[in-house]
């Protein structure tokens, strides 16, 4: 049976309305694909605590606050993943971004990611972000 993963990911905005994407490090499933920073929620951890921990571990960024957004479930070859996406507005985080795990990162408008390989579960998230910008 496939493992079930509970994952939190943060959609961080800057003051220009761009979102932060990072590439998945070598050695992980879908290495080199672009995702929102985040990771598995540990036992007993709240979503916000997991988000804060993952952002600090991966990017050296401090998340002060975030709002729960979409929570899709996606079945991959390697696992069934319950994803919890949080929106993090420009005033809700601080710090200089450092790629602590050797990953790349980029800031993009949600409608400017067509050239990047992104995780399959994230297509609907990017689409929903594009729709947000037009409503
Ligand atoms: N972080 C993140 N994971 C995502 C996104 N979209 C998506 O489908 N996933 C999936 C890919 C993985 O199967 C799972 C995250 O697990 P992971 O193995 O990267 O988590 P982790 O950073 O805690 O990794 P680990 O080193 O502790 O194993 O969620 C996303 O935008 N961000």
Automatic annotation (TrEMBL):
* One MF annotation (Gene Ontology) recorded for this entry: 8-oxo-7,8-dihydroguanosine triphosphate pyrophosphatase activity
> Which N-terminal stretch is annotated as signal sequence?
none
Give the EC number(s) under which this enzyme is classified: 3.6.1.55
Keywords assigned by UniProt, alphabetized: DNA damage, DNA repair, DNA replication, Hydrolase, Magnesium, Metal-binding, Mutator protein
SUPFAM superfamilies xref list: Nudix (SSF55811)
Which GO terms of type biological process are on file? DNA repair; DNA replication
Top-rank taxon: Bacteria
Enzyme superclass (EC): hydrolase
Q: Give the CDD domains listed for this entry.
A: NUDIX_MutT_NudA_like
Q: Does the keyword DNA damage apply?
A: yes
Q: Which reaction does it catalyse?
A: 8-oxo-dGTP + H2O = 8-oxo-dGMP + diphosphate + H(+); 8-oxo-GTP + H2O = 8-oxo-GMP + diphosphate + H(+)
Cofactor (UniProt): Mg(2+)
Q: Which family does it belong to?
A: Belongs to the Nudix hydrolase family.
The UniProt entry, under PANTHER family, shows: 8-OXO-DGTP DIPHOSPHATASE, NUDIX HYDROLASE FAMILY PROTEIN
- Protein's name in the database: 8-oxo-dGTP diphosphatase
């Amino acid at each position: 049976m496939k493992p079930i993963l509970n994952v939190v990911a943060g959609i961080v905005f800057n003051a220009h309305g761009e979102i932060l994407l990072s590439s998945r490090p070598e050695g992980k499933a879908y290495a080199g694909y672009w995702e929102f920073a985040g990771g598995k929620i540990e036992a007993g951890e709240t979503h916000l605590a997991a988000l804060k921990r993952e952002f600090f571990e991966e990017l050296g960024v401090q998340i002060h606050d975030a709002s729960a957004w979409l929570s899709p479930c996606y079945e991959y070859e390697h696992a069934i993943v319950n994803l919890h996406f949080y929106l993090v507005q420009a005033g809700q985080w601080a710090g200089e971004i450092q790629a602590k795990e050797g990953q790349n990162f980029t800031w993009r408008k949600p409608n400017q990611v067509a050239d990047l390989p992104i995780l399959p579960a994230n297509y609907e998230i990017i689409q929903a972000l594009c729709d947000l910008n037009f409503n």
